[in-house]
Every structure is written in structure tokens, then in C-alpha cells.
DNA sequence: GGCTAGCGTGACACTCAGTTTCAATTGAAG
DNA sequence: CTTCAATTGAAACTGAGTGTCACGCTAGCC
């Protein structure tokens, strides 16, 4: 969308270019390794200038990780649509179905992406940072569900964080199994591991 | 320690210089802001060359965060000394007392440090990354306690991660209260928030 | 159908973090 | 005192990210 809010022809073109650049970057990173590839390499491979590349993605990491940006909000939205009388854990678990959808849509691509991120410290760190940024929205969504006004309570923060850990642990194990294990079961198992006192 | 294992005069000097450099960096960052301060500024303020500064701390972030490096191992060690029949949550909660000790030793310094880190995206990210690196040791310690041989089960990873979240949430709230709330109570409360199904 | 204002782009210069190399110095051990 | 290894500082280099500016294309307007 442009600043005015209307989706123009230009915005569509921009999104297409962005997707294309991201794809080129992903393939180059996979083939050569993230740190071997310079911004100049990326720009050359994509047929644009270094300046342009950096205008689409503020950093090298974001060329690959910008796909994650919307995820946090989507999970928070899913959380808000859960029935009000549902307990936090069930609501969180169900909201995370939103987050694992892509892994079912495109298992091979997701596997490759997860591996690339896991094997690249810079990407790993940046992804951690992004996920950390999801927590306020999740905690706020939990607080709203509880009927509280704004400031989420300590418990909401803890449960939001723990749920994200479950997601990460489940995805890690799924990746270690080369995508053979069932991600839904792993996620259930992760949540279950939180329960026993 | 030098490579041989013996602690020599040089090693003592090194440690002293390292502590001094860290202190200078911390004060400069607090006064001017992390990103305003360049490596040249740091070196000049500490009276050493840029090269030397970078030899002591591989990155600008580590000048302030290298204090955290040992923490993960210390918590894992504390975990291993807990009675074998204790449940994971109790053991984790008690092991984390090791981690919050510095906050009682030097509340003002800890408060300043926590704020600096929280308000500086680069430091926040780097700290997150370091903490992420603690999880393997914690998960392994839990697995050992359970009598299992090496590969920690999914549940161990989940509980190790959740415990670290509790620590972080507790410290965040403690910081927000300007250190007025009791960190031990906050940590207890955080762990309690994990329980209710 | 031209005109123009604005956006996307490329070129370039710049700052700064981090790496590497090398020569000079220091200080501990024999 | 001499020798040898470790510490340091100087300097050159790579690469990420920022800022500026001028050019060209295109959408919208008369």
C-alpha cells in the first residue's frame, strides 16, 4: 500500500519485485552460504543496483527473513478470535496453528529455510529478535481476552513467551527429523511438556 | 588461563585490563548511547588502541555483554547439583537463584545494565542470542537428571526454554519497577503462571 | 497528445565494524 | 644478559549500511 492507503499499480509491482529479490537471495544464500554472498553479489544476481536491493530490504538478513514479519500479528489476531472462555494454553496452542500452516503448504521450502537460518548465526539471531518482537502483541491479546485493560500481567508475558518456545522447539525437532515427524503432534507434545508439575 | 592451564601473572593482568575496558565502555555507552560511541571513542577513552580493544572483546556488544557468558554454564551446573528426585520445575527454579544473585549484589548497577541493554536493539539482540546458547546446556542437564543418556527430549528443551523466559519476564518487571519489587517473588510468580491449565 | 510532478532507480561518497598482517615492544624465564 | 613468546599498535582492507543527488519513467492532469 502507498501512504494514502489505496493499493496502486506501483504497489503491486513493488511487491512482485520484492518477492523476486527475496527468492534470488534465498537461492544464492543456500548455494554459496550467507556470509560468502555480498550485497553486490545479490544485486548483480537480481539485476538491480546495490542501492535498490537495500531499499527493498534494509539488511541482508531481511532479504530472507522479511517473510516472518507479518507472522506475529497474524498469531495475535488468531488469538483474539478464540472464544473468551477458553483457557490461555488452549487458545495459544490453537492460535499457533496459524504459524505452522506454511510448513504444511511447502514442507521442502520450509525445511530448506529453517536449515539455512539455523546454520547461519546472523540469521538465527535476527529471527530470534523478530520473534521476541511478537511477544508484546501476544501478551496484549491474552490480556484483552482476560478482560483486563492494557498492561498485560506477568503471567500473560510468561505464557506468550512459553508458547513461542513450544513453536520453536517443535519446529527444531521437525527439522531434525527432515520433516518426517508430524509438526502438529510435536507442537502438542511441546505444550504437554509444559504441564506436568 | 593460558593455553597450558596454569594461571600466570599475564593472565591476571589480562583479566584486570579486560574488566577495566568493560567498565569504561559501560560508562561511555550509558552517557552517550551505544550507537553514538565508535570503537575509536572506546579505545581513546580506555587509553588503548582500537586493535587492542577489539582483541579483548570481539565486538562492541561484547564489551558490555561478556559478563553474561559464564552465566549459562553456572546455571547448568547448579541444575546438576539439585537432588535427582526433584521435579524439573523446582530444580530449574532453584538453579535460577544462581542467575539472579548479581541483581541482589548490585541492584543499581544491574538496573543500569538492564536498561542499557533493553534500550539498545543491538545489545538486546546479542543478549537474546547468548541466552539462546544456554539452552543446550540446560536441556542436557535436565536429561542427565532424568537418567537419560545424551539427546535431551523435546520436553527438556521446552522446560529449559520456558524457565529462561520466566527469568527474563521477572527481570523485565523488576526493571520496570525500578528495582522496587522483589525479584525472587517475581520469579516465583512467573513460574506459577506456567502451571495453571 | 503533450506536460509536469513524483516516484523508483543507479551512482557515488561516506562512516563504521570487524579482519588481517606485520613490525615494534615488553616482560618472563633461563 | 639473552632469548623467546605474547601483547600491542599501526595500517590496509572488506563489506554493511546511510545519505545525497541526478536521471528517467510513468501516472495523472490540462
Kindly describe this structure.
- The structure is a homodimer of 197-residue chains.
- Chain A is mainly α and 197 residues long.
- Chain A has 2 domains: 9-64, Orthogonal Bundle (Arc Repressor Mutant, subunit A), CATH 1.10.10.60; 69-194, Orthogonal Bundle (Tetracycline Repressor, domain 2).
- Chain A has helices spanning 9-32, 39-46, 50-56, 62-65, 71-80, 88-105, 107-118, 121-145, 154-176, 183-194.
- The radius of gyration of chain A is 19 Å and the shape is globular.
- The N and C termini of chain A lie far apart (49 Å).
- Chains A and B meet through helix 8, helix 9 and helix 10 of A and helix 8, helix 9 and helix 10 of B.
- The structure holds a DNA duplex (30 and 30 nucleotides).
Give a summary of the structure in a few sentences:
Chains A, B: Residues 15-75 form the HTH tetR-type domain. The structure is a homodimer of 197-residue chains. By secondary structure, chain A is an all-alpha fold.
Helices and strands in order:
The structure is a homodimer of 197-residue chains.
Chain A: H1 9-32, H2 39-46, H3 50-56, H4 62-65, H5 71-80, H6 88-105, H7 107-118, H8 121-145, H9 154-176, H10 183-194
Helix pairs in contact in A: 2-3, 5-6, 5-8, 6-7, 6-9, 6-10, 8-9, 9-10
The structure holds a DNA duplex (30 and 30 nucleotides).
Amino acid at each position: 500500500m502507498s501512504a494514502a492507503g489505496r493499493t496502486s499499480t506501483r504497489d503491486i509491482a513493488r511487491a512482485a519485485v520484492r518477492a523476486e529479490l527475496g527468492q534470488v537471495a534465498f537461492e544464492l544464500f543456500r548455494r554459496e552460504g550467507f556470509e560468502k554472498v555480498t550485497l553486490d553479489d545479490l544485486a548483480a544476481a537480481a539485476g538491480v543496483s546495490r542501492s535498490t536491493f537495500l531499499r527493498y530490504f534494509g539488511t541482508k538478513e531481511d532479504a530472507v527473513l522479511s517473510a516472518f514479519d507479518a507472522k506475529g500479528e497474524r498469531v495475535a489476531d488468531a488469538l483474539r478470535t478464540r472464544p473468551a472462555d477458553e483457557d490461555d494454553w488452549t487458545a495459544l496452542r490453537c492460535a499457533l496453528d496459524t504459524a505452522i500452516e506454511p510448513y504444511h503448504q511447502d514442507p521442502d521450502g520450509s525445511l530448506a529455510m529453517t536449515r539455512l537460518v539455523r546454520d547461519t548465526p546472523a540469521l538465527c539471531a535476527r529471527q530470534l529478535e523478530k520473534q521476541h518482537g511478537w511477544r508484546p502483541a501476544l501478551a496484549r491479546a491474552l490480556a484483552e481476552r482476560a478482560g483486563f485493560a492494557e498492561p498485560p500481567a506477568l503471567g500473560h508475558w510468561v505464557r506468550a513467551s512459553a508458547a513461542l518456545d513450544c513453536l520453536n522447539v517443535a519446529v527444531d525437532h521437525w527439522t531434525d527429523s527432515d520433516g518426517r515427524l508430524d509438526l502438529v503432534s510435536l507442537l502438542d507434545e511441546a505444550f504437554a511438556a509444559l504441564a506436568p508439575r
